[in-house]
Structure formats: structure tokens, C-alpha cells
Amino acid sequence: MTAPQNLESRARYVRDTWARRCNVAVFVSSEPAPHFPAVGLGVAEGRGQLYRKTIRALQYVHRQHRASADWFLKADDDTFVVLDNLRWLLAAHPPHGPDLPSTAVIPLPWPWPPARSPHVSLWSLCPKCSRGVP
User: Fold this and answer.
1) CA angle 75–24–34, rounded 5-degree value
2) TM spans, by residue (predicted)?
3) Residues 16-35 pLDDT 10s
4) pLDDT band at 98; cut points 50, 70, 90
5) Looking at residue 74, what is its pLDDT?
6) How far is residue 31's CA from residue 35's CA, in Å, rounded to a whole number?
7) What is the DSSP string of 70-129?
8) What is the pTM of this model?
């Protein structure tokens, strides 16, 4: 997830580095940016809209990409992910199995206050887990 003002200053570095190793990489923003490309979600920008923006992003991924992968990673434009390590971590866990929840939030140790600490959010969009998502 990114914001229109961060496309060139942050999101392009994600796109040009670790996102290349993703099977599918989708950038979402409050406004569409076909030149980047980024999908516009039609929500207002700002911290007060993060929940709505996240829900809209998940709905978009569910509608457009649910058959493309078993796991989906929600990351912000200031995140760096070592995908080989993440794949290794997930390899032992089937996405539709009982040993991982449909949503896993893994907090990362950093020197920031807990409310602002970075984390990795993973979603498995199995049919059982996605009932009720429009």
C-alpha cells in the first residue's frame, strides 16, 4: 500500500527491488496511477482511512487475484521483505491447513514504539476463510 505522493519517493524502490521476486505484485493507492502502475481504491488519504484502505485492498485482491497465489502479503511502501526467507517460513505450512490462521501478523523487533513497529501481514484466501467478502 502506498499514497500518491510516495509513488516515486518510496514505492518505486519496492517495485524495483524485492517486489520483483513476487509471483504477483499489486500496488494500491487512494488514487489510480496507470503510469506506475498502482490501482486506485477510491478512499481518502490519511491515517484515519488506513483501515478502510486495507479492507478495500483485500477486497480488490480477492476479486482480481485470488487464483494467482496461495498467500498474499500486505506491505507498506517503507517495507523491505526477503522473499526467500518468507517462502522458507511458509513452506512447511499449507495455506489451507489448520496450523496457521487465515491471517498471520508477525511483529518484527525494531527500536520503535510498539504502536508504530513494523509487521508483516499474510492472508490466505482459501474459500473457507473468505466467506462474506464481496
Assistant:
1) 85
2) none
3) 999 999 888 999 999 999 99
4) low
5) 86
6) 12
7) SEEEE--TT----HHHHHHHHHTS-TTSTTS-SEEEEE---SS-GGG--EEEEEE--TTT
8) 0.73
